[in-house]
């Protein structure tokens, strides 16, 4: 029987590319996103000859995660790509409570709940692979993207801690993928197309980012910063004062900065 993988946020972008790689590698896959487009994506993944199923679910809710897991129909989960995430631009004080809560509930609460449900079985049998999509944004105080960057700082930090907690289950690997800006629908959905970072034509290709993450996952690496420019930025962030980083981020993410 083929191994079984779940990929979240798989309708577009990095998640779509991760699902493609999983199917190409012979995994039966269950893909999920919070939009009907995931069903069309699933049809695309079937070209590789494995069993593909899809579910539309809001992974910012406990009920949404539960519906995803129910769709697995009790099958052993050999691989999980916890990739679903949501961005949000503009100043924090200008954002609605519903909008910033959705970011936190998707990026943090839903991700943690999914890990909490999937990892115990992996640890018990000492076998399984998990990829969590963090971000180099987690290293940088995100002026005009404060909630998103803060949520990714949580994810980056949390996965480091969890990796240590489960280290005795050495057959289970937990890899954190940390890309920089990627050419996806992220910036449109986060209302950031008028920002310098949103309008930048030199963002990473999601296929390249997914391949970096997939290779690191297969190698059992703890984490991977995708892209050499992002590796430099991540290294510099560790030795740069927070106030300087925040001002630099402001120049990228402040509404209207695309015209500066």
UniProtKB/TrEMBL annotation:
Coiled coil: none
Gene3D superfamilies with a match to the protein in the record: NAD(P)-binding Rossmann-like Domain
Pfam families: adh_short (PF00106)
Keywords: Oxidoreductase
UniProt xrefs under InterPro entries: NAD(P)-bd_dom_sf (IPR036291), Sc_DH/Rdtase_CS (IPR020904), SDR_fam (IPR002347)
SUPFAM superfamilies: NAD(P)-binding Rossmann-fold domains (SSF51735)
Family, similarity comment: Belongs to the short-chain dehydrogenases/reductases (SDR) family.
Protein's name according to its UniProt entry: SDR family NAD(P)-dependent oxidoreductase
Organism this protein belongs to: Sphingomonas natans
